[in-house]
Amino acid sequence: MALSNFLPLVCAAALCSLAALARVHVGLDRVLTRAAIGLFGGYVAEFKGEHPDRQSALRAAHFATTYREYGAMTMLYATLFAIAGAIVGIYVIWGLLLVLAVDPAAMREALPGALAFLANLGGVPSLSATELFGLFALSCLTIGTLAGFGAYWLRWWYPSYVADGRARRIETSLPSTVAFMYALSRSGMEFPKIVRILARHEDTYGEAAAEFSVAVRNMDTFGMDVITALQTTGRRSPSPKFADFVENLVSVLQSGNSLSTFLETQYRDFQEESESQQESTIELLGTLAEAYVTVLVAGPLFLITILVVIGISVGNTFDPLRALIYLILPLGNLAFIVYLSMVTDTITPGGVAEPDSDEDDAAVPSPVAVAREQPRPDGGRNAARPTDRGRDREQRNVERVRYYRRLQRLRERVGSPLSTLRERPRLSLVLTVPIALAAVLWRLPVAFADGGFDVTVIDDAVAIGALFVVAVFALCYELHRRRIEAIEGAIPDLLERLASVNDAGMAPVSAIDQVRGSDLGPLGAELDRIWADVQWGADLQTALERFGRRVRTRATSRVVTLVTEAMNASGNLATVLTIAARQAAADRRLKRERKQAMVEYLVVVYIAFFVFLFIITVLAAYLLPNLPTEGIEAAGGGGGTIDGLGGLSQTAATQYNTLFYHATLVQGLLSGLIAGQLSTGDVRAGAKHAAAMLALSVLLFAVVV
After folding, report:
1. How many whole angstroms separate alpha carbon 661 and alpha carbon 656?
2. In principle, which of 475, 476, 500, 693 could form an S-S bond with 421, CB 3.0–4.6 Å?
3. How far is CA 396 from the centre of its chain?
4. What is the pTM of this model?
5. What is each CA distance from 524 to 83, 297, 518, 540, in whole angstroms?
6. Span 225-271, pLDDT tens digits
């Protein structure tokens, strides 16, 4: 068959690839957008008023595009996919005719016995030119229409999907956001400034802060007052709960009632609602755990057992077993992990995070720049302005300091690798993965020694390599997580002590010095670093921001943001610190209750895996070795054999054992990850469970089987 016959199919693939490439290539996206607006912009604008829900979905999803542009691009993509679908339809009907033109007798010989009935579809008589044209046209129209309509529907469904996800994240972060607003209002800060500060800390307070940033943009760009900006934001928000809160907030601002009292009431209501929401989410997780055990542990075990029995009694069932073990089982577990991450994200926003960059001290502006740009404490400004020559010298000095800090961090990491791995557990993969791959590659030539590929030569190396990688990561991550949890657990005590000392009249800097000598566990070392920064000339706000960048959890970021912003508003921080302490304690209590409730389902996953491992071990160690290698003779000495019990060869038994071994490895790795995700909401916490299950599988097959 000539390659030119596939040229239209290549064109169809190129049309579909335009949509994917436009997302990563700005120039191509600009060209397609201009073409779409030129072709379909007028049509979309003409019928704009008939689809207000689509406009609302685009605003709620915060898509940086207009309705006219998005609608025109949707029409263009639908046209491209319709053309590509029509081309694919030609090849579909062409291939179908080629298959059906095969002689029924030849099809019956090639097909397995169970599929022999499909041979009756063969032997299609030759069609006339008119019939062929009609058939091809029908296929083009059908598949092309389906492809175009599917692309059109998906493009308009996607904004609603994104908006629904934003609504869930807004409602999750709303309690902490309201607590932040309440604490700043008690510090004496005016409300517009509170909104602006909240909008600047979107990384800390999530989607709720992003909603307030829209109100700030409306005030700064379009000149709206704060009431109108909040009303507009509430109407366009995808979260009904946020819209109700904004509506009540506007009513309080217009009536002149106490803002602090209103925010305190809302904070308590949202906290109670968070507790009830967590209970419902835990119940959902329990249902999901039971469904996982039934569908992805007991179900595959049942199918494996049935296929083995069928293979012993009837014939070869290796292909269905391979499809189940290497395809269905991993994909099913991975899909469950993805869905579980969406569920647990509503109760564990943020979680334990690792530093993603090296921006620590280098992110702090230089003292020269601070002295030049900021006013003096007495209210004046620095009169001395450096010359161009002096400014160039200062800039060179700043660059030297930055390079020195980078080299210093590199030297510290290399000089203390254990501390580096504890702070950044994922760096362990940089060391362990190459070692594991080298061990597998070292065994790989032996697997190809006999002209074929013997998977049993390298499966032990793969299993031990995976165990090595997962175990080292689990050790580093557990040390990191326990340190972070110890710091977060001590934060409420720290805030309460700071509040009591500050309430007694001590300044914030002196309060830090007074409290750092108390027993706060790992947080004491961080307080010493904060005090060292202050002693070396940094202000308390900068020292606290460095502390937040070192720990990098959502809880510490919220505390640092609240304290630093409250310090700018007033020196009396006792009330703000008390509110922050109560919020941190409430978050810790919810996390502890969730962990206690999920231990039950963690045990269920372990028991399910033990049952899976026990059944597989019985099949591999006791059933297969005791089967006869030849057919079972019929009773009565007739010399015949019983149909369906032809025995099991040694080669088949070895293949079954290999498949059983791989099934336990796959199930152990993925079940461990799911167990950790169920118990903590973070799939990385499942590394220790995955390591334990992998080790048990390897040990059991090495000793028993």
Report:
1. 9
2. 476
3. 41
4. 0.75
5. 66, 45, 8, 16
6. 999 999 999 999 999 999 999 999 999 999 888 888 898 898 888 88
Return the number of other C-beta atoms located less than 10 Å from residue 273's C-beta: 14
Q: φ, ψ for residue 237 (rounded to 5)? A: -75, 145
Contacts of residue 354, Cβ cutoff 8 Å, sequence gap at least 6: 423, 424, 425, 426, 480, 552
Tokens 């249902």 locate to 287
Distance of CA 343 to the CA centre of its chain: 11
Q: Tell me the average pLDDT across 306-333.
A: 86
Residue 12 CA to residue 63 CA, distance in Å, equals 29
How many C-beta atoms surround the C-beta of residue 629 within 10 A? 10
Give CA 294 to chain center in angstroms. 25
CA–chain centroid gap for 190, Å, is 37
Q: Give the torsion through C-alpha atoms of 172, 178, 180, 182, to 10 deg.
A: -160
The full DSSP string for 179-228 is HHHHHHHHTT--HHHHHHHHHHTHHHHHHHHHHHHHHHHHHHHH---HHH
Count CB-CB contacts under 10 A for residue 306: 12
Whether residue 330 contacts residue 671, with contact meaning beta carbons closer than 8 Å, is answered with: no
Give residue-wise pLDDT tens across range 502-542: 888 788 888 888 888 778 778 888 888 888 888 888 888 88
Residues 230/249, Cβ–Cβ less than 8 Å: yes
Q: How many whole angstroms separate alpha carbon 463 and alpha carbon 661?
A: 10
What are the distances in angstroms from CA 44 to CA 39, 49, 150, 163, 382? 10, 10, 18, 22, 57
DSSP label at residue 682: -
Beta carbons of 40 and 72 less than 8 angstroms apart = yes
- The pLDDT-based confidence of 4 (bands split at 50, 70, 90) is low
* Cα torsion 660, 663, 669, 671: sign: negative
How far from 307 is each of 388, 609, 648, CA to CA, in Å? 82, 20, 14
Nearest CA-CA partner of 560 in 582, 536, 574, 576: 576
Query: How far apart (Å, rounded) are the C-alpha atoms in residues 442 and 456?
Result: 14
Residue 73 has, within 13 A of its CA and on its CB side, a CA count of 21
Task: Answer whether 139's CB lies under 8 Å from 82's CB.
Answer: no
Distance CA 671, CA 663 (A): 12
Strand partners, 633: 641
Asked if 144 and 83 touch (Cβ cutoff 8 Å), the reply is yes
Length of the chain: 705
578 with 199: CB under 8 angstroms? no
Collapsing DSSP to helix, strand or coil, 553 comes out as: strand
Other beta carbons less than 10 A from residue 484's beta carbon? 20
β-partners of residue 553 are 352
Q: Is the model's pLDDT at 143 over the cut of 80?
A: yes
Tell me the CA end-to-end span of the chain in Å, nearest whole number: 51
Amino acid letter, 335: A
What contacts 439, CB < 8 A, 6 or more positions away? 461, 464, 465
> Residue 583 in contact with residue 179, Cβ under 8 Å?
yes
Output the six-digit token pair for 296. 């992805």
Give per-residue burial for 277-293: e unless 16+ CB within 10 Å, then b.
Answer: bbeebbeebbebbeebb
Sign of the alpha-carbon torsion through 531, 532, 535, 538: negative
Q: How far apart are CA 577 and CA 563, in angstroms?
A: 7
